[in-house]
Structures are given as C-alpha cells and as structure tokens.
Amino acid sequence: MDLKSDSYIVMNDGNKIPVIGFGTYASENFAEESFPRNLMEDATKVAIEVGYRHIDCAYIYGNEAEVGNAIRAKIADGTVRRENIFYTGKLWNTFHSPHLVRPALEKSLQQLQLDYMDLFLIHLPTGLKPGDDLMPVDENGHYIFHYTDLRETWEALEECKDVGLVKSIGVSNFSSKQLELILSKPGLKYKPVCNQVECHIYLNQKKLLEFCKSQDIVLVGYSVLGTSREGKWIDQNAPILLEDPVLKSIAKKHKKSPAQVALRYHLQRHIIVLAKSFTTARIKENFQVFDFQLPPDDMEALEGLNQNLRYVPAKLSIEKFEAHPNYPFHDEY
C-alpha cells in the first residue's frame, strides 16, 4: 500500500479524510489527570506545522476553544487554509434528543470559531439525561440514562449536513448491530461515513473492519498506541502496548519506534489512525510513518497479538454503562 504524508481515503459521500489524525483528548470532565488546556493548543499548532491536516476533538474534552485557537492561528500565519484542515467533532451523550443536536453542534462551532465541521460524529450510543451536567449521576453515583432512538438522532445529524453546518456525518463506538440499525432506517438520506472505535494491536477489530468495509464505511481507530494510565478509567494491570516484545522487535528491525510500527500496521489495513501527544518530538515521530512498509510476515505477526482487549471501558464504562439499552460492547463486534 503506497502511502504519502498527504494520503487520504475517499468516504462514501465523496469527501476525503486524511489517513492520520491528531487526537486532542485531554478531558478535565472525567479524568483523574488534569491537562492544562494551553498544552493542547500549543500541541495542535505543532501538529499542523509538522503536517497533520486531520484534527480530532470532541465537546466533552472541554478544549474546543483552545483547539480552535490553534487552527485559526495556523490559518492566520499562512501555514494552512481552512479547506486544508479536516476537523472532526462529536455529539456528546446528553444531546441525543433530536431537538438538541443542532444547538450542540452550533455551540461547538462557536467555541471553535469555525463556520463548519468536516465531520460530526455521535460520540457514543449511550445517551445520558439532557441538561447542563455532562455526566449526570443519581444519589448512588450511577449515571442517569436517557434513551433516544438512535435513528432519530441520526436524522437530526442529516439535517445539520443539509444546512451546511457539517460536510460529513458518522458515528463512534457503535457495534455492527447499531450500524445496521442506522443503515436499515426507512428514508435514510446519508449513510454514516465512518465508525470511530478503539483499535490497536491488542484489539484489532478484524470483524468490525470487515463489516464496515462491506458497507463502504471507514474505520477510524483511537487509542492506536494504547492509552494513558488514568486510574479512573484504565485497569492498571493491563499490558503497556508500546512495550510489547513482538512490536519492539519489528520496530528494531525497521529502525523505527514501536509507535511508528503500531500506526503503520493499521494504515496498511486501510484504517484511519489517530495519534495524540503533547510532546513535540513525539508529535513529529508519529507523523513519520510514510517512508517504510511492513511486509506480510510482520503484518501477520502483529495480527497474532490480538487479545480482544479493551483499554477504554475496562473499568468505569463497564461498571456504570453496561445496563444502558444502547451499550455497544455486549455485541461481538
């Protein structure tokens, strides 16, 4: 697979998505670790300078204003034009009710100071009680669920696309059954262009990838390099992905870092990859994945590392979200 730094995949609506994106997760809303927001603003500027043209953010991260500042600064200094940036935003769980979708998108655009998003996703299928509290809990500390038919939420996204607030619409953390629910909706106007999910060498999403390809839906992978070790979210006994001996051995053979090989593996599977870092050296390193190719034996060895291991919902989500009628991880894929 011939990949260049400006490579992209054409989605089912004809719009192009760059194959590598810069992740901006740094939420103070539900993380034990606190990341100063100015760090993400500076990191996003570096990413754009390095060559990233795909920026992935979300309302729940609480840093849309800072990410927007970075994008607009790089447009103002002539590094890029707006049409060269592919910006992804996400609809949070408390805004699933159809009448809340457009206002939520408009609020994000206001914080970003952008006129439109390139891609807008339903962040999670598990709706929460609408209101100012983004993580509403009851007196027992349990999330207060809210059920909205995902097909109705999807129709509201379609309307946002029709009025030009967003160019492409998709989903995140959906199972194949939930995708089928949208795809089989009577009167469907636009198919989801993508499904953004956790994807890495320990969770290679082979079956979900095959399903998405069969429906002309792009798979976008987050946590491709593993994840931070936040105690609130992550099982501290989970393996550290970038220390995997097979991955390290292949990286040494190619004179690349384990992170570069992990990213390259998914790129060669036609998966869009998201990489996040606050460190200038790592931001640059993670983008240097276009000058080598993994041969079939290396791809096979990495394929063999799959454990169907989820980092992200390992603790908090399973304990508190699995009773939700739209919880996606009961399904095999």
UniProtKB/TrEMBL annotation:
Keywords assigned: Eye lens protein
SUPFAM superfamilies referenced in this protein's UniProt entry, alphabetically: NAD(P)-linked oxidoreductase
PROSITE patterns: ALDOKETO_REDUCTASE_1, ALDOKETO_REDUCTASE_2, ALDOKETO_REDUCTASE_3
Site positions (Lowers pKa of active site Tyr): 90
Domain NADP-dependent oxidoreductase: 20-306
GO molecular function, one term: structural constituent of eye lens
Location of the active site: 61
Cross-referenced Pfam families: Aldo_ket_red
InterPro entries: AKR, Aldo/ket_reductase_CS, NAD(P)_OxRdtase_dom_sf, NADP_OxRdtase_dom
Residues binding substrate: 123
PANTHER family associated with the record: ALDO/KETO REDUCTASE
Recorded family membership: Belongs to the aldo/keto reductase family.
Name of the molecule in the record: Rho crystallin
The species this protein was found in: Pelobates cultripes (Western spadefoot toad)
